[in-house]
Amino acid sequence: MTTIVNGKVLMQDYKVLCMDELKVIEQASIAAEKLIARVVE
Prior knowledge:
Largest sheet: 3 strands, antiparallel
Distance between the termini: 44 Å
Number of domains: 1
Helix content: 40-55%
Strand content: 25-35%
Number of helices: 1
Structural class: alpha+beta
Number of strands: 3
């Protein structure tokens, strides 16, 4: 599967090419921890 937007290949063979997936996962994890901490208080 390939996803192309405005002539730029964003995903090919189910692999995201336009961003660092591990960095996004790390940032999402940090945001989730902060949200949980706020809800628990």
